[in-house]
Hints:
Helices cover about 75% and strands about 0% of the residues. With about 90 residues, it is mainly α.
Amino acid sequence: MEDYYETIKELISALLAVHGYKSYSHECLISFMREFYPDALTESQLHFLDDLRRLRSDILYRGRDVAEDYLHRNSSEIERILELLFEKAR
């Protein structure tokens, strides 16, 4: 789950760099997508990314465990988001 999040974060950071920006805030990455690529991801996908961001933070900083089936339940949404971001990064 963390690797998926890091890949998504890096793809959005690459898009940010194309526009001449750099962000150290993960929240800003989602806001950037909403502002500069409003048609790339649905509002539902952006909310999912924000939930993923919070989950990743809880894992890293609070030692939160993730349900064993989390990836199974969410892998298709994560892969779809990655696909859409790869399209924008080309």
